[in-house]
Amino acid sequence: MPDEMPMAPPQQNSGQMMMMMMMFMTMFIMFIPSMRNAVGEIAHVILFPLIGFDSRYPIVTLLLAGFLMVLVSTLVRHYFIDWIDAARNQSVMKDFNKELRDARMAQNEKKVSKLMAKQPEMMKTNMDSSMNQMKPMAFTMIFIIGTFTFLGVFAHDLPSTMFSVPWHYNVNFSTSVVCGFENWIFVYMLVSMSFGQVLQRILKQVTFSKRLKELDEAEAIG
Questions:
Q1: Residues 6 or more apart from 164 whose CB is under 8 A from it?
Q2: Are 189 and 119 found together in one domain?
Q3: pTM score of the predicted model
Q4: DSSP string spanning 86-137?
Q5: Contacts for 159-165 with beta carbons within 8 Å, 24 or more apart?
Q6: Same-domain pairing of 65 and 172
Q7: pLDDT tens, 103-133?
Q8: Residue 145 structural domain
Q9: Count of domains in the chain?
């Protein structure tokens, strides 16, 4: 049948399995106290002398840890991933899906069959691009887990520290909970996600601008 979807290629299944395993490992380490403390103590030896400030400025430590984690992981991903190729593959796949959708709406069975025959190749190319984007995770995940577990140990070793956050004037750094997370985790996530998005957009803009400049110079020479 031309409308049947082809089976996912082996690369897609292996990529999804790898992602699930990495997510499970991360959750296992982060949310099991014994594992988190073991990894955190190791990271503590390295990070506490750098950003611990003898536990005097816990919010500063939290912010610096978030910035450091995002900076390292974003830079590693950025320089190990070909964003130009990723954008090209995304655009090609988008055009292909649009063409297939239009052919189905027009009930052009011949064109649908032709596109469906080509779809596995398109999916493989797209999945190869996705797998290339996931490869740096093996390096960044180690640093992310180490930083996060360090903060877990750091937060729970603090005295009863109170601080202000946008959702409350006076909360405990390590024991109060908001939205299912301890306050330090929630603040850490807000800082790291926001900073990560901004940094990634800046780096991508620089990369694409540089590439466009190179193309313009090549056309001028030609």
A1: 170, 171
A2: no
A3: 0.65
A4: HHHHHHHHHHHHHHHHHHHHTT-HHHHHHHHHHHHHHHHHHHHHHHHHHTTH
A5: 161/58, 163/58, 163/59
A6: yes
A7: 889 888 888 888 888 888 888 877 777 777 7
A8: 37-81+137-222
A9: 2
Quick check: is 21 in a domain?
no
- Last residue of one domain, picked from the residues 118, 135, 152: 135
Do residues 162 and 172 make contact, with C-beta atoms less than 8 angstroms apart?
yes
Q: How many angstroms separate the CA atoms of 207 and 4, rounded?
A: 39
Question: Tokens in use for 5?
Answer: 């979807």
Instruction: Write down how long the chain is.
Output: 222
Taking 70 as the threshold, does the pLDDT of residue 192 lie above it? Answer: yes
Comparing CA positions, the residue from 48, 69, 45 lying closest to residue 57 is 48
Query: In whole angstroms, how far apart are CA 145 and each of 110, 116, 131, 164, 187?
Result: 51, 42, 21, 26, 17
Asked if residue 122 belongs to a domain, the reply is yes
Name which of 77, 57, 206, 179 is nearest 135 in CA terms.
77
144 domain-assigned: yes
Alpha carbons 123 and 117: distance in angstroms, whole number: 11
**What single DSSP character describes residue 9?**
P
Residues 100 and 118 in one domain: yes
Give yes or no: residues 61 and 94 share one domain.
Answer: no
**CA angle (126, 127, 129) in 5-degree steps:** 65
Q: Is residue 181 part of a domain?
A: yes
Angstrom distance (rounded) from CA 150 to CA 83: 31
Q: Which of 211, 206, 202, 69 is nearest to 148 (CA)?
A: 69
- Give CA–CA dist 166/113, Å, rounded: 55
